[in-house]
Amino acid sequence: MVTAAAPDEAEAAVAEVYLPNRLEALEPGPLSMRLATARIGTTTLGQLGYGRRMRLVTDEARHIHVNTPVVGTAVSTVGRSAPMVTTSEQAALFPAGAPADIEWSPEAVQLCVMIPSSTLERELEELLGHAVKRPLHLPFHMNLTTPEGRVWRSMVNLIAGELMSVGRLLTNPFAGRQLERTLLDALLLGHDHSLIHELTRPDAPAVPRSVARAVDLLHERPSEAWSSTVLARAVHVSVRSLQAGFHTHVGKPPMTYLRDLRLDGIHADLRRATAGTTSVETVAYSWGVLHMGRFAAAYRQKFAELPSQTLRRQPP
Q: Which residues are CB-contacts of 160 (< 8 A; sequence separation ≥ 6)?
């Protein structure tokens, strides 16, 4: 966590993580900037607030930036666009090659995500299953009230909590890679950009051989940081084709299948273990589980008991 009480210190802290900028106070009072950051893959995450009504003007961005208020509001402008008020229900997406002008309310705290254009384009090609032939245009306004937009909102909430607690999702390199892919997919599938129709167009289901190989990979390496994108790449089909193939031949999405596979494996291991020789966390981590709260809830829903209760029960 970086803090600053002087504008020049705050400018330097943001410039070190993101890009050169200038700050202007819009009301009297002390400055209390707080910036918590993390890097996952090539993506930069930061939670930033100034504790005072401030105006931030940046140099031309070299990467894509997405600012989402966690609390409070901001008024954002990019290039010649009209000013836009962002709240918890809408985010601002700043393209590479343009400066930004942002006014922060005194209580505003934003999750600021910086993504290299090349990273986002590679992920888009993985989702499509072929090279992108047209430029990707990302509108400035990102609606977070739609079902797809709410996925981005939930990712923001998760990352904001991890930044404040320095959670394992951000410090574990395997989890970080998976989190980056999920974040990029939430942006590409939840934002109404120029190529969204290509992503949502129905695709032919994967042939059973590809689905069978994907299932085999999940059973062989259940603890790996799988995502639908990585699994599709491994069996040489597009993500849409893999998902359609799982729906047709397995009856559930690939990541739901993986979750159930892990839950069954953990349940079996806990039934064989004893509380004095292992812990729930040790067993869960060995199966690739990193978010213990969500794991415990899913486990209880599936087995009608907490994992700790299974562990305390003496093996037969």
A: 47, 70, 111
- Integer Cα distance of 104 and 23 in angstroms: 11
pTM recorded for the entire structure = 0.73
CATH of 2-115, one of 3.40.50.300, 2.60.120.10, 2.40.30.10, 1.20.1250.20: 2.60.120.10
Helix (H) or strand (E) holding 231: helix 228-234
Q: What residues does 67 pair with on adjacent strands?
A: 92, 112
Rounded alpha-carbon distances, angstroms, from residue 18 to 39, 54, 133, 267, 303: 12, 17, 29, 44, 45
Q: How far is 253 from 10, CA to CA, in rounded Å?
A: 45
For the stretch 174-201, pLDDT in tens is 788 889 989 999 999 989 899 998 888 7
Collect all residues with Cβ–Cβ distance below 8 Å to 85 and sequence separation of at least 6: 73, 74, 75
Per-residue pLDDT reduced to its tens digit, 271-284: 998 888 889 999 99
Tokens of 5: 């009480």
